[in-house]
Design brief:
Elements: H1 2-23, E1 25-34, H2 38-52, E2 59-68, H3 73-85, E3 91-92, H4 102-110, E4 114-116, H5 125-131, E5 135-137, H6 142-156, E6 162-166, H7 169-174, E7 189-193, H8 201-210, E8 216-220, H9 223-234, E9 244-247, H10 257-260, E10 268-274, H11 291-297, H12 301-321, H13 345-356, E11 372-373, E12 379-381, E13 384-388, E14 393-398, E15 404-406, H14 411-416, E16 428-433, E17 456-461, E18 468-469, E19 474-475, H15 477-483, E20 489-490, H16 498-501, E21 504-506, E22 511-520, H17 538-561, E23 566-567, E24 580-581, H18 585-596, H19 608-637, H20 648-652, E25 658-661, H21 666-673, H22 677-688, H23 698-708, E26 712-717, H24 718-727, E27 731-743, E28 746-748, H25 754-766, H26 769-778, H27 804-835, H28 840-852, H29 869-874, H30 882-898, H31 900-906
Helix pairs in contact: 2-12, 12-13, 17-18, 17-19, 21-22, 27-28
Length: 917
């Protein structure tokens, strides 16, 4: 019973479906194809066949196809009118091979919907609204495609410089927005037409390798020529590991590029294609692959868009036709105006419906994602898939809002991948630099370190950082190698400047610096403990001592012949028998020494000639002493005197010290481009010096300062300056830092690894590694310059060494005085021992004990009467001076006897000698 009911239900269903098929409204559609467009025709047939197979679809489509032998507008018009005469309700095609829009004009006049699926050079909005009102194009507009490429290149890839190679005018139109991607430097974008090199394409790639200095290329060409072009470019090393290619043709994946892909194709090649709603065809698993499956699997744009055009029209036609009470077939004439008939109204409704449909309103689904037609019949909304054509690996999706979203590759696809991605092979970076201490030096036991970024690298040595030739507009050195993409990283004392940033990119700075002046520091004169003798030459000191002796003897002689210098030795005796002259040799010498020492004397001359002589001696002593004091100050402070050049302003205001900088470097560029008055004046002076004050390297400048020994100053960056000062005690920095600059790693414009390098530098800075490296390589831990730090005092204070001679003279005088005093003490001890008839030891002991009793102020006459203080006080002279008194008495007696005659004439009484005298 159950089986009977099931058989009855199936039979009834078949009868119902057959009845519904008979009730479907037949709609005729026409298509125009050129030769060799079999794939389009198969897609056209497959789409309508799939729709007709949908049992619940209310329409049944009958197709009419016509074929164009060539691009003949007259034939095209005839074929179009022939299709219309067959009563077609839609016209599909032709492709862009047709050079005119005759089909669109006929469809516009008859009201027949016209479906397009290929690009044409776009007309203006006014023309679309006037003569193409019945046309709907499911292919993305060229302007929208151009905007998509701009978003990918500028926003996602951040390419600032690249070269465009295009094959056709249509391809150039697809790239029109890229022309304005970089407005600062017009040379950043270079444009080459491939067809201009049709005779020998090798010339094009040779120019690209040698003259264009490029590593990023945008290529728009037909898929049929893509393989040959890239194979030729490979011979010129344009497919190296750091070269990047962007293919803009939406059918680049259909070429045989993946078949020739090998290790030589290490360039990072990416392309774009329309994003499909279907799963990736390469992931699909079918037991039987038909020809149309292969066509759709290749994802070729035109067959897929033909399919979408059919789906769009069929769903719009169904919605309109089934909504009508009675379907009115289109008119079967091209020249409706001749018979006074208006265009087909249903066709206008169908076109309007196509503009309102979205991908959620159709059955079956569109093959391309995000299908939407605007009010002008153009498709400005769509999705693009960014992929690697060499391995057919999807990377990201671009959407019409401008966002680029990366996609994750399924593990199944990765496991199924047969062709390895050679662009992901570990690359070796070329690091370009030059020998410059301490940034790059040759070390015997070197090894390659990888601190944070784990990559392989090799060094390339060049002659310098890079100079810009104002005439040829070309660079050399490190910058040249980066521009030519012969190296990937430039590292040295490379200053970040605006001019360099036009040609290369820089990472974040790894060192801050400025400009200062390197100058020579003379050796300090050795310390001399007899520096107080330096104000006068040796012969001056000899003449000064001889003058002292001569004046002393002259003074004694003048005193003896001067009547005013003889005086009464006993003022209480009004009638002395003899006179005394105080100016004997010792007193005269004491007056001369006291005068020149500015200490004076307790006795002074009385006569006019003597006073005149003393006055002249005082004048002489004053001049000598003043001259000595001034010269002494100059001599003792000469070693502390610093250079009069203490700043850049001092440097430009003098003319005996030349100064310069490294020619063509960032320092010379700073002065040449500065608007500061002092800096500009310094630059003009540097240019005027003969011979030239510029150097070819910093090392030459440092050596020139060293050899100049104060006649040359070198303006250089403070980092290199401090390094050289640490290693040479004869070098010094004068003046403050000028300006502020930074060192950074240089990379080619738009290098994708620049961000990683910057992040790594920031990490090293935060960890203190950069500070440790600078302290290690800049600081000279064996520096001996500070051993003579006392010679580098800033003030004019004198050291103990320079005043040591003064202390030695003082000490010598004290020693001599002590020796004489001791000798006099011993002589007195001997005399006491004789007079008092005691042993010398007893006399020495008694005299020494008394000398050590500092609190006793009076001394007894005899050592045996130490307790008789009254007798000691009654004596007018001490025992120590008794010998001197007796000598004085004998001297006076002698003088009196010699002058007895003169004394006798003055007094009638004879000479009287008291016991005291």
């Amino acid at each position: 019973m159950y089986m009977c009911r099931e058989f009855f239900f199936i039979t009834l269903l078949k009868i119902s479906i057959e009845f519904m098929d008979e009730r479907k409204t037949e709609v005729k559609v026409g298509a125009i194809f050129f030769k060799n467009e079999e794939a389009l025709e198969l897609s056209f047939d497959a789409a309508f066949q799939q729709i007709n197979n949908i049992k619940l679809f209310e329409l049944h489509f009958i197709t009419f196809k016509r074929y164009m032998p060539n691009d003949d507008s007259y034939v095209l018009q005839q074929l179009t009118c022939e299709l219309i005469s067959n009563g077609v309700a839609a016209l599909f095609g032709p492709t862009s091979k047709a050079s005119n829009d005759i089909v669109a004009l006929i469809a516009n006049s008859t009201g027949i919907p016209h479906l397009q699926y290929d690009w044409n050079i776009e007309t203006t909005i006014e023309q679309l609204q006037l003569n193409h009102r019945m046309s709907v194009n499911v292919a993305p507009t060229l302007s929208a495609i151009s905007k998509a490429y701009w978003d990918i290149i500028k926003i996602n890839y951040d390419w600032k410089t690249f070269t465009i190679f295009y094959q056709s005018e249509q391809g150039l139109t697809r790239l029109q927005d890229l022309m304005g991607i970089h407005t600062v430097n017009k040379d950043a974008i270079k444009l080459k037409r491939i067809t201009d090199y049709s005779q020998d394409i090798r010339v094009l790639w040779k120019e690209a390798a040698e003259a264009l200095h490029e590593q990023r290329f945008i290529l728009d060409c037909d898929p049929e020529t893509l393989v040959d072009l890239l194979n030729t470019a490979k011979d010129f090393k344009l497919l190296g590991p750091f070269k990047q290619w962007f293919l803009t043709h939406l059918d680049s994946h259909s070429s045989s590029l993946k078949l020739i892909y090998n290790e030589q194709f290490k360039a990072n090649i990416t392309g774009v294609r329309l994003k499909l709603n279907d799963l990736n065809p390469y992931e699909r698993r079918k037991t039987r692959i038909t020809l149309i499956d292969q066509i759709f699997g290749n994802q070729t744009m035109l067959p897929i868009l033909m399919y979408d055009a059919v789906i769009l029209y069929a769903n719009a036609a169904r919605n309109i036709i089934i909504s009508l009470k009675e379907y009115q077939h289109p008119y079967k004439r091209c020249d409706l105006g001749r018979y006074g008939r208006s265009p087909w109204l249903v066709g206008r409704l169908i076109v309007k419906e196509m503009k309102e449909l979205s991908e959620d309103d159709v059955e079956p689904l569109f093959k391309t994602e995000n299908m939407k037609i605007d009010e002008n019949g153009q498709r400005s909304i769509f999705n693009l898939e960014i992929y690697k054509p060499t391995v057919n690996e999807p990377l990201a999706i671009w959407k019409s809002d401008g966002l680029v979203t990366p996609i994750r590759i399924k593990q199944e696809f990765q496991a199924a991948a047969v062709i390895p991605d050679f662009s992901q092979v570990r690359r070796t970076y070329i690091v370009v630099t030059h020998f410059e201490e301490p940034y790059f030096m040759l070390k015997a036991d070197h090894e390659n370190f990888r601190e944070l970024m784990d990559f392989e690298y090799d060094f390339m040595i060049v002659g310098g950082n890079g100079k810009f030739n104002q005439i040829t507009k070309e660079w050399d050195g490190i910058i040249r190698k980066l521009i030519d993409h012969q190296a990937q990283i430039g590292i040295s004392d490379l200053t970040i400047t605006q001019l360099r940033r036009k040609y290369v990119d820089f990472t974040v700075p790894f060192m801050q610096l400025g400009i200062s002046i390197l100058f020579y520091k003379r050796d300090a004169e050795p310390k001399n403990m007899f520096a107080f003798l330096q104000p006068f030459a040796k012969e001056v000191w000899i003449y000064l001592i001889l003058t002292q002796l001569i004046i002393t003897l002259m003074f004694v002689f003048m005193a003896r012949i001067s009547n005013h210098e003889w005086e009464n030795p006993h003022p209480t005796n009004l009638e002395p028998i003899e006179l005394e002259n105080k100016w004997y040799t010792s007193n005269s010498a004491w007056l001369m020494i006291g005068s020149i020492m500015q200490q004076g004397c307790d006795i002074l001359p009385r006569g006019g000639p003597m006073r005149m002589l003393v006055g002249m001696w005082w004048f002489f002593a004053l001049m000598i002493l003043s001259t000595y004091t001034a010269n002494l100050a100059a001599f003792l402070t000469s070693n502390k005197m610093q250079s009069t050049i203490k700043s850049l302003k001092d440097l430009i205001e003098q003319d005996y010290v030349k100064f310069g900088t490294f020619h063509g470097g960032s320092t010379s560029q700073f002065f040449s481009e500065s608007n500061n008055t002092d800096y500009h004046k310094a630059w003009n002076q540097m240019k005027s010096f003969q011979p030239s004050a510029f150097t070819s390297s910093n090392k030459e400048g440092v050596e020139r300062v060293r050899k100049g020994q104060g006649n040359y100053a070198f303006l250089m960056e403070t980092t290199s300056l401090s390094y050289n000062i640490e290693r040479d005690c004869h070098l010094q920095q004068i003046g403050h830092q000028i300006g502020e600059k930074h060192y950074g790693l240089a990379v080619p414009l738009g290098a994708d690894y620049r961000t990683n390098l910057s992040v790594s530098l920031l990490q090293l800075s935060e960890k203190g590694e950069l500070y440790k490296l600078k302290n290690k390589w800049w600081k000279n831990h064996n520096n001996t310059c500070n051993d003579n730090k006392e010679a580098d005092l800033d003030g004019d204070e004198l050291s103990i060494i320079e005043l040591g001679g003064v202390f030695m003279v003082l000490g010598g005088g004290i020693v001599i005085a002590i020796v004489i005093g001791c000798c006099e003490f011993l002589w007195n001890v001997q005399r006491v021992a004789v007079e008092e008839r005691v042993t010398p030891c007893e006399a020495f002991k008694a005299e020494l004990i008394f000398a050590l009793k500092f609190w006793i102020k009076r001394k007894p006459i005899r050592i045996s009467s130490g307790s008789s203080t009254s007798r000691r006080s009654s004596r007018s002279t001490s025992r120590r001076s008794s010998g001197q008194s007796k000598q004085s008495k004998r001297s006076k007696i002698s003088k009196r006897s010699k002058h007895s005659k003169r004394s006798h004439s003055r007094s009638h009484s004879g000479p009287k000698f008291s016991e005291r005298d």
